[in-house]
Structures are given as C-alpha cells and as structure tokens.
Design brief:
The protein is of the alpha+beta class. It has 13 helices and six strands.
Length: 365
C-alpha cells in the first residue's frame, strides 16, 4: 500500500569526486597507520577501506581491488568471529572517520552516508559515538541549520527501538538546548521552541517528571495555555482568547527547515511544503483497520499555527468510516515534537494566528 500526499516529495541526489591529492594524502596516512598500529590492525583496515572507496569513485578500479585484497588477507589471519567483528568495527570506524572529516567540509557527502551509520551505531551499541558526533556537528553549525537538523533527526529515529531511547533522545535534545542557549540565550524563542518540542516528546513517552519541568519552563516564557500555547494533544481545545484566527495571511505559516533558504517567502513556502510532506511521509502508517477492510480515500485535518509556531486546535474535518482520523491527528500532533517551530503567519508586519488545512490521500496498492 501507499499513501499519496498532495504535494510532491522532493528527492535530493548528489554526486562527488575526490582529487588525486586526497588519495595521495590518505595513502600517506595508511603508511603511518601501518607503522604505528600494525599491519593487521583494524585501524589500518579502515584506512584501506577508505582508500578503496576513493579510488572506486575516481574510476581507479584496479587500485581499489588491490586495497580490498589486502584487507581480505589481513582478515584471513583472524578467526571467523574476529573476522566478522573486525569487519564491522572497521566499517563503523571508517564511516565515523568520514563523518568527522567531511561533515566540516562536504556536507552532502556526509549526508549521503548518514542513515546507515546511525542505525549501525544503534545496532552494535555505539550510540555514545553518535551522540558525540551530533555534538561535534552542532559545535560547527547553528542550532537552526537544516542539514545539521537532518543528522539530529536520523540519530533520533535510530534510537526509537533502543531500550534506552528516552535517555538517548533527551541527550539529543540537550545538545540543541545547550546550543540555543549559547546562540540566543534562555529567554529566546529559539531556546523555548526546543524546550517545547522536548516537552512534547517526554509527554508522549510518559516521562512525566521531565515533561512537567519542561512545560513549566515553556509557560513561564510564552504564557499559560489560556493564552493559546498548548503543550500536548490534550490541550488542543484551548484557543487564544480575543485574537482572531485567519484563514489567509500575506505570508502564510511555514513548516520549519527552510528559513535559511535564499529568495522570496514564496520560495521558502514551496520548500517548507515539500519538507512537511517528507515529514508526513516518513512518519505516517496505513491504519490496520483501513488496510484490513480495504478502505481508501482522502482525509482532511485542520489546525491553527500560533504566533510562536506551535500547533493547536487540531481537528479532523473529513474521515472515511473513522479509519484515518486518529492517524492524521497523531501526525500533526507529532509536528509539535519537531525540534524547530513553524514560522508564524504575517499580516501587515505582525505575527497572526492562521488556520491551516491539510488533505492526505490514503490508497492501497
């Protein structure tokens, strides 16, 4: 089955090449590593693996094959278990080294490697390394940087099945809040926006004490729920009093992640719509009841974007046999867990409340 979204998902692809200078530099590192760590070491294997990839990229297939043959000879000197572990560790170390060097120089290259790396880290118990890597990324980039955010989201997604997922996720959130504190201060909307997302996460996973503390911090900065800054789905019925909610604005609200884009607000809005659809597509599931009963069709959900970029007054406008309302409500509520807040709607230079509607079509293959 598939879920057809009404906006096209933007797919990114890229390619890159490495210079002969880079290969020569890495060959020098390989010689040094062989001398210092030994010709049978995992460290030497990872450098050779890196060299093989670089040479393949440059079309130097015979040279790459020679490096891989060397790796096979080294592994053959170990037992079967040691071979397996050595190979896994080498690949992990190789990718980690790639990240450390290239995340600072070639972000697209690092972005292409990212998904498998984070899941490998989780699978083999190296999550502390991925936490350290996210910290390193945010030492170099702004808390509002979109590519850095994508690494953060991938790391977080890889922790969902981990027994320590709540602790690991809160460590990731703390990286963002610490960065925002340094950049903007604890009274800033940027900082409170991260705290808001972290509060929603802890509410969903029922980490009540953490949620309560974070909620109090948000309310102290943005006001009580009576002023329309709901934290959780249970508060969706609360509306901001005496403030009109618009259906249209000169500048409509935008899903986060595209504010760093150059160009007009319309260009940012197009980017934001595609990013939002990617978010929806990545998180939504075809409801079991609908699948078992072959139910298809379009569901429509409505919500209000506040002046601080939070979502509330979430309401299903159209459902089909009660099959999809719960799922689309979950997805929109999950947007309040996104690290960055929406960009508020603007009218005559002022932030305004705007009511949004989002249709999602569900279709079985």
């Amino acid at each position: 089955m598939k879920i057809l979204l009404l906006l096209t998902l933007l797919l990114f692809s890229s390619s890159w090449a490495y210079s002969q200078g880079a290969i020569q530099s890495l060959e020098n590192i390989a010689k040094q590593t062989k001398q210092k760590k030994g010709k049978n070491s995992a460290e030497y294997i990872l450098v050779l693996a890196r060299l093989a990839q670089l040479k393949n990229t440059e079309g130097l297939f015979a040279a790459a094959k020679k490096d891989m043959a060397t790796i096979d000879k080294i592994r053959a000197k170990h037992s079967e278990v040691e071979q397996s572990n050595l190979g896994i560790q080498a690949v992990f170390e190789y990718n980690y080294a790639t990240f450390q060097s290239e995340i600072l120089q070639d972000r697209l290259t690092a972005d292409l490697i990212a998904p498998n790396w984070y899941y490998m880290a989780q699978m083999y118990g190296w999550t502390d390394r991925s936490i350290a890597l996210i910290q390193e990324i945010y030492m170099q980039y702004s808390s509002q940087d979109n590519i850095a955010l994508q690494h953060w989201l991938r790391a977080r997604m890889s922790y969902e099945e981990d027994d320590n997922s709540v602790r690991l996720n809160n460590q990731l959130w703390n990286i963002l809040t610490q960065k925002a504190t340094t950049e903007f201060g604890k009274k800033s909307d940027e900082y409170i926006g991260f705290i808001f997302g972290q509060a929603n996460y802890n509410n969903r996973v029922k980490n009540i004490e953490k949620y309560t503390n974070l909620r109090q911090e948000v309310e102290a900065a943005w006001g009580s729920f009576d002023q329309g800054t709901p934290i959780s789905a249970t508060d969706n019925q609360v509306l901001q009093k005496d403030i009109p909610v618009r259906m249209l604005a000169e500048s409509m609200p935008r899903f986060p992640g595209c504010e760093g884009e150059s160009g007009s607000n319309n260009k940012k809005k197009n980017c934001a719509d595609k990013t939002m659809m990617h978010f929806v597509f990545s998180n939504i599931s075809y409801p079991t009841f609908a699948k078992e009963n072959a139910i298809e069709g379009m569901a429509v959900i409505e919500f209000v974007v506040s002046q601080t970029g939070t979502l509330y007054a979430i309401k299903v406008l159209r459902d089909i046999e009660g099959a999809f309302g719960k799922e689309i409500t979950r997805i929109v509520t999950l947007m309040n867990e996104y690290p960055l807040r929406w960009t508020a709607g603007m009218q005559e230079g002022k932030k305004v409340l705007v009511r949004m509607r989002m249709p999602i079509r569900f279709k079985l293959d």
